[in-house]
Design brief:
about 500 residues, mainly beta, 9-stranded mixed β-barrel, 5-stranded mixed β-sheet
Length: about 500
């Protein structure tokens, strides 16, 4: 007897690997085809999606300039175990394989026990297999070496061993490294098995692994790929619109811990997350895809602190996320990026001459040195370095928002740091006293100066900043060409 399975496939952008195969089943006799209404002792097979349920929290920051489509087809096969109520194996490592398509284009599956003759002259009927027990374990890809196994514990151990010995080099293929499981063995968390009347058994395969997905510009050269501090080689799925798309399967259950560096036109770029920075902890789960995407918010909102004000305050300065020495423990002690007022990026130099150069090259609208008194650029990526670098709703705080912070907090200064502690929430943020730049050399490094997004209301060449001294926190006006750090915020 053979089992004919109708297949329907769906594909959704960002949903990777197996693509929701809805496989409706009917059985045929060995000599003649029966009607679809005769479905006694039939097997239904499906594969759940590789999920990307929340793109914001599955994407990873990208620092730089800028699915595997799996279906069962002819020759594919998976392994099937049937266990009795006592956990003993009634049918071990039964091979279920696709022998081709029928005249209507439906996939035809055959079932036989491993070890039968190559001609498969003694096929076992669906009733022979499905009627042996009520506990099932199915897996893909098929492994002849698995044998008949001893029972549920051995099958669960197989899943664990498969994940622990997953190949680091997946460049030649992806699907052979995937592990799909459908089971109703107690304690096996992957997939699903449903049994119905008249011998119906429904297998829904789920991914025991997680997937990493990322794009690199075509022509880029691999510099270093690390996951959990170990080298890995992903699978190149294709090239589209100048972008190479890569996929990699890995064991879930821990923090997504990745550092990818590549060289393009002599410049080094990178993706990173997890233990490399401790800035964006993403805990991985089976059957989920994690996408490294340059459009993702570079620094997540959960790094912000509620200081009892109208805005949430970042716990570290703009640019410290790119400092190679940054960790969760020391990041608030780092200066980060210094920018001139209205410059949406670090220009590498500061002072009157550098500001003139920047403004003369400005082409997107009114140059920053021409913005009128009282102007506020907060949230405008043309002028706001925080918005431009971190994305989302991150922005440079206004002068009023700094005043609000002063009024809501107590203030202490020690060891080159100032600490604001909210009188309402009890939360604290620390800011480094890094001085200011009128050239490439810092001045007054025992005092902390930070930009606001608000231009001075008195002078067209100055803007509001803050000054943190040992015993004072005040507003001041700094020349717009001064290089100061930025502490980003976003509105609640």
């Amino acid at each position: 007897m053979t089992c004919k399975i109708m297949r329907r496939t769906t594909y959704t952008l960002y949903i990777l690997c197996a693509l929701l195969l809805h496989l409706a089943a009917s059985c045929t006799g060995e000599s003649e085809q029966k009607e679809d209404t005769d479905t006694e002792n039939c097997l239904h097979v499906g594969i759940s999606n590789m999920q990307e349920t929340n793109p914001v929290y599955t994407r990873v920051a990208y620092s730089g300039a800028q699915g595997e489509h799996m279906e069962f087809g002819t020759g594919d096969y998976f392994g099937l175990f049937v266990l009795g109520e006592d956990g003993s194996v009634k049918a071990g490592n039964v091979k279920v394989y696709c022998s081709g398509l029928d005249n209507s284009g439906s996939t035809v599956w055959s079932i036989y026990k491993e070890g039968d003759t190559q001609g498969n002259s003694s096929n076992h009927t669906m009733a022979d297999i499905l009627g042996l027990g009520s506990t099932f374990f199915a897996y893909y890809p098929y492994n002849e070496a698995l044998g008949s196994a001893d029972g549920a514990a051995a099958l669960q151990a197989y899943v664990t061993n498969f994940m622990n010995t997953l190949a680091a080099d997946q460049s030649s293929s992806l699907t052979e490294h995937d592990l799909l499981v459908a089971s109703n063995i107690p304690g096996c968390e992957y997939g699903e098995v449903l049994t119905g009347s008249e011998g119906h058994v429904s297998l829904t395969f789920a991914h025991a692994l997680a997937m990493l997905r990322f794009h690199l510009p075509a022509g880029s050269v691999r510099y270093d790929y690390l996951i959990e501090n170990k080298d890995f080689t992903p699978y190149l799925t294709g090239i589209d619109d100048g972008q190479e798309e890569y996929r990699y399967l890995f064991k879930p259950g821990g923090i997504l811990d990745i550092c990818i560096k590549y060289v393009l036109d002599g410049k080094l770029y990178r993706f990173e997350t997890g233990k490399w920075k401790f800035l964006r902890p993403i805990y991985t789960a089976a059957g989920h895809c994690y996408t490294l995407d340059e459009s993702a918010i570079k620094v997540p909102y959960n790094t912000a602190v509620d200081m009892g004000t109208s805005v949430m305050w970042a716990s570290f300065n703009l640019g410290t996320e790119d400092d190679p020495t940054a960790t969760s423990e020391n990041i608030s002690t780092l200066k980060g990026t210094c920018v001139m007022w209205g410059a949406n990026k670090d220009t590498g130099n500061y002072g009157s001459s550098a500001y003139t150069t920047y403004n003369n090259a400005f082409t997107e609208g009114t140059a920053p040195n021409k913005l009128p008194i009282g102007y506020n650029f907060s949230g405008n990526p043309i002028y706001d370095a925080a918005t431009n670098a971190w994305g989302g709703e991150w922005r440079t705080p206004t002068a009023d928002e700094w005043t609000e912070l002063f009024n809501a907090c107590t203030y202490t200064a020690a060891d080159g740091m100032v600490t604001f502690t909210s009188k309402k929430t009890g939360n604290s943020i620390r800011l480094k006293q890094a001085g200011y730049y009128d050239s490439s050399t810092p001045s007054s490094t025992t005092t902390g100066y930070y930009w606001s997004s608000s231009a001075s209301t008195e002078s067209s060449i100055k803007a509001h900043s803050t000054m943190f001294a040992a015993s004072a926190r005040i507003h001041t006006n700094a020349s717009r060409y001064t290089g100061l750090p930025v502490r980003p915020v976003f509105s609640k």
